[in-house]
Amino acid sequence: MDDVALRMESVFKMYRLGQVGTGTLSHDLNRWWSKVRGKDDPASTIAVVNDRTSNGDEYIWALQDINLDVKKGEIVGIIGRNGAGKSTLLKLLSRVTSPTKGEIRVNGRIASLLEVGTGFHPELTGRENIFLNGAIMGMSRKEILFKFDEIVEFAGCANYIDTPVKRYSSGMHVRLAFAVAAHLEPDILIVDEVLAVGDAEFQARCLGKMQDVSKQSGRTVLFVSHNMAAVKRLCPNSILLENGTIVGSGTTQEIVDQYLTKGNSTDRIIHWNAEERPSTADLILKKISILDEMSRTDSMLTSMSELRINIEYQIREQLKSLRNVITIYSADGTAIFSTSDYGGRQTEGYDMPGHYVSCCTIPGGLLTLGRYELILDMEIPMERGLLMGQSISFQIDELVINQLGRIKAPKPLGLVHPILDWSINKS
Questions:
Q1: How much is the pLDDT for 362?
Q2: In this structure, is residue 11 part of a structural domain?
Q3: Out of 45, 225, 308, 422, which residue is the most buried by the measure of CB atoms under 10 Å away?
């Protein structure tokens, strides 16, 4: 296990829903006696998969049969929906709780940042908490003093370093906690979604620091986040958790695509019935559809398909300066571009009561492989929104032309893959 930072072998974690105890003394004694004899917990035979969307039984498996090896110096992303078991997995690795079954081996010193204020005593100052955390990690006072100024500078809280942390905001808590965890030279750094509390500038600094910790110092990082762009930027490899089990493991791009497309509908037409149509007193949205160049909604879209977006609506009363705005988002929530029909409304009469179809064409040779979401906002600019946030999804399934010439590459890098004009001159 020389090159392995941590190893999980057939790890299970069971919880009992509802009451804190098991309910009866005999039940407690039965489980305790089984543990003493090295037998399986008798409640494990009735525990069910942890599916938070349905009513389950009394016992649930928060994690089931987790087998995982992480090598030294690796940065591994852990992704999954809420309730998938990500935080439970990190708590097991951080030794906050113990597994019901299985074995966990850790090679080195762990620093973890699982929630705001983790490991901080609220009555102690920031300075005192830095020394406390360092001592807990087994560092000497001399080692902590050597890193102290760097920690304070990174956290950006020099003015508050001698103030009790109970008076810190949640953002200040996170800044100092991450600075301590990252600078006190742990062999393994575990970071949960808690970084989302920080501002954008601090999040970027944290990502850069985690990269430095891994590349320059050869330390291991486990990173949990719902920000897919951050996971793809930081982690070469990731695992996907679902209902307490690992359902995917591989390169981050593959795992993120698997996560984002799983269970997501990409129907390219929304046609509401009369009772369900989004509407206001002066506007009714009847239909949104995405067609290919042959006006089909059931065909496979390719990177060369010309997409035609139709928005069908009815104006009940005159709406001066109505505007339809569409924004195309990638699967990880990154806005690619926005456009509106404002230019086509310069002709008079398009704001009067009546039935309308507003059309937009996205040329072929622009979007690359992947899933996309179209968000429609119907508004009166600088005045009010009418029908905002109406969404429809679609999928580009085939890359017709890979301009990079990479035969083995399933998908080019970037949000778009446009065909651009090039010229080559020989002198």
A1: 94
A2: no
A3: 225
